[in-house]
Amino acid sequence: MGSFSSSHTDALEGQTPVKAICVIGAGPTGLGAIKIVKDSDEFKAGKWTVTAFEARDSLGGVWNPAPATGDVPLTALYDTLTANTAHPLMSYTSYPFPPESPLHPPWSGVLTYLHDYAKAFDLLPHIRFNTPVLSLHWDASAQKWDVTVQGEEHLQFDLVLVANGHFRVPRIPLTKGLEAWRTQNKVTHSVWYRDPSVYKGTLLVVGGGYSGMDVASETRPYATTVIHAITGATPEDQDGGKFKKRGRVVEYLDPAEGKVLFEDGSIESGIDHVVLTTGYQFSFPFLSTPEVEPTLPPLVPPIPSVLYNSTYHLFPLAKHMFPLVTSYPPSSIAFIGLPLRVAPFPLSEIQTQAALKVFRDPNALNLPHEADAVRARYDKLLAIVTPKLQVLDQSAEVAVADVWFRFGITEMFDYRDELYEFVGTTYRVPRWERELFEKKDLLRAKCRELDRRGESAAWLRGVGAGADPVQEWADFLFKVLNEGPTPEAE
Length: 490
Hints:
This protein has 15 helices and 22 strands. The protein is an alpha/beta fold. The protein starts with 18 loop residues before the first strand and ends in a 7-residue tail after the last helix.
């Protein structure tokens, strides 16, 4: 198909041309972005259009299931996955979950919620499914982004909102000896994990995040022995040695003997298989040089004038969104949803509001101030990781990159509030949301205990059906926290 522009270049003389906005991805972040563009006065006045490109045949991103096939599966979603955060703390600010929804819905409940969100705000007409973006390049002469999609269709856009997610391309650690185990087919990453019953014998689970905890817990009824390796963990044997906690894996020894060396000097042998729950890479296959350099950035200072994708982070970005570069306007592209350990649904909405503010008025982004903020964050994180480099087994550059988007709870909410202030709204993250998020793991454990006792439905009856569902859900979370049953010790 030939090239053409998505902007209305045939506008009558004296009229402002219609601006075209591209959203890459129709997962939770992309859906939030489309909705916020549609809410804008410019869209309602016909001055902006929005088109989202989704590679798959349906919306949902990581919450849209797919088999564990191919070089890399289309999603890391596993059969038993439930939300690890109570839905009142993760839902879009503009759209609560339905009344009586389980606090930690299964993946199917989250996917239904996303479909309902798209229908409620009429997002589907703006999404082109089965249309992956192949390349994205800045056209300096036209001052637009050239977007090439499947079928060699070429389009031009004034603003690009990148929302393609970051839970697909697995990160394989560079631990000594691991490659030999991989060549013996004794290692998989959790992106391929679906059914715990297929794991027999002695299983080593590497990684202490939510996926690692789930895999280690779910495989225990099926595997003969489960060893869970978490950096810094105190070695402990449970259930007569059928479940073992160990520290970081230092080296994978002879794969034939299934031997692994841990950070405390202990060795386990007879390991039949390893599941790596070691995270994911930031991947933007449609971006390449000169727009993005695919390598680690040099040490700071100075702040580089080009954008780098280290796969651990994207650097440097103003407000964790806008490239601090000189080869294209920072106001013309924004990366939505990069921070980790956050509630991504509400974050996508306020980040898109910030992107639209800067698109309207590029001068709203104080570039010298933002560069100073990036430099200050770099110095702060470098000071934190430097004493830990030997334990982390990383260079300073990698260690800083690895923690760049790993937000703490306070930092996550402070960041959202900074964006609310930036766009000029009086809304701030409610105090209850901050308080409850700090207790989210205890909430999850108490909800699981209610499920185990068969009491969840009774507790949930009528919750969220009143005139102020958001406050009802907040009150209910406090009720579960304060009055819910004590979880059974494992």
